[in-house]
Design a protein that fits this description.
The complex is a heterodimer.
Chain A lengths: L1 H6 L1 E6 L6 H17 L3 E7 L14 E3 L2 E2 L8 E4 L4 H6 L3 H13 L2 E5 L2 H7 L7 E2 L6 H6 L3 E2 L4 E4 L2 E4 L4 H13 L2 H11 L17 H27 L2
Parallel strand pairs in A: 1-2, 1-5, 2-4, 5-6, 6-10, 7-8
Antiparallel strand pairs in A: 9-10
Chain B lengths: L7 E6 L6 H10 L1 H4 L9 E7 L12 E3 L2 E2 L8 E4 L4 H6 L3 H13 L2 E5 L2 H7 L7 E2 L6 H5 L4 E2 L4 E4 L2 E4 L2 H15 L2 H10 L21 H8 L1 H7 L4 H8 L1
Parallel strand pairs in B: 1-2, 1-5, 2-4, 5-6, 6-10, 7-8
Antiparallel strand pairs in B: 9-10
Classes of the chains: A alpha/beta, B alpha/beta.
Chain lengths: 238, 242
Amino acid sequence: MATEEQNHKTIAFVLYPGLTLFDMAGPLQVLSALSEIVPEYRTVVVAERVEPVDNDIPGQMKVLPNNTFEEVPQPFAIVVPGGNAPTIRAMGNEAIRAYVRSAAETAEVVGSVCTGALILASVGLLEGRRATTHWAFYKILEQFGATYVRERWVEDGKFICSAGVSAGIDMALHLAARLTDEETSREVQYRLGYDPEPPFGGIDYEHIGGQLGAARAGLSLAAPVIAAKPKRLTKQNR
Amino acid sequence: MPNDDNTRTIAFVAYPGLTLLEVVGPMTAFLGLTRGLVSTSREYSTLLVAERTGPVDSDTPMALVPDKAFEEVPDPFAIIVPGGGVSALKAMGDDRILDYLRFASYGAELVGSVSTGGFLLAAAGLLEGRRATTHPSYVDLLKKLGVDCVPRNWIEDGKFITAAGVSGGIDMALYLVARLKNEQQAKTIQTAMEYDPDPPFGGLEQNGGAGGNGLATGLAEHRSDLERALANRPDLFQKLFG
């Protein structure tokens, strides 16, 4: 593994139970296609153990990582996907926190999709930085001292965060261009057949109501409580 | 996991080398059918089905572990076949997959594919003379199997619905959420999954057809592999590459 890491620029995707699978699959698909075109890069999926992991899709379908955290200690890049309640739990999981903290220290790119930003923030990585997350969770991000920006993706230094779920695809195409060039990123886009035409148009962010609006309001109210434990853990580690 | 007799099952057909996001994208959009905001719906479920329930490699380092084996899901409401590039073409030589597609599609109300998944439907004899689509660089190849193949984001013909690629699969699934439930539900899941796409360099039209030559080169490289994989279907190999 050490030689693999020396010979390649390894992009490690952090897998944990209950994640939103699309958050992982979007950028993993894009950057794996990049690695086929530019073999200097390689993607890996890392988790605490190499065993089937549950996710947000109802049913028994699971996903299997290909490496443990210990096997990929110093990746070139890490990408952390998000989720709902399981991501909030992951913010307090010491194995995940320790890996994200140590891998981010040496990585040249540290990325997140959706509420994956909350995991980065929960170990203190986004303090004072511009960042984004899923629109419903922005108050929690702000609790950790990040400046929330409602954009498809936001870059600040080596950190790059995307908005919710499918925004990870757009972020990864941007990242592919940054790592190589625009032409290569377009080639990836063509290979994937990514030419979106949502049948009912885009999203009207000014008028999110109903159950989704209520969910956002509830999360905003609960933000200080949700952030309290990870903040305490981060302080202890300093 | 709801398993009412009344639950309408949307079965995604897995095979080695499938494109991960062409399963996960539509399945996530179908959360608009399978999951309420607070609980799992009993009306619809999505399942990943395969020959066996052991892990199936995708075209990324992450493998998928299916819900069920083919024989456990004999009468799904819908089947959807994801793409997988050359791996999808190779899977055309697997009789167990084609038999499942023929059998399950007979009673299914909806039969769909994403990208090169259309080749598996065609190899099973399901798309003959039908309007369908696939990945833009495979359109001419799919025509060779008697499919009236046109470059579209997605296209419907009777109970068959086929999509072009990663985004076509998501767009098609959102459309199906609206058709099977209602437009409001489709918009709600779209908002929850923040599907407000903004490709950094625009769509593929602005893209100037980058990568169009990749397919021809790729297939030439895999010719002998494909010949081996399709050893039991020389007719298909001949039509496609003869």
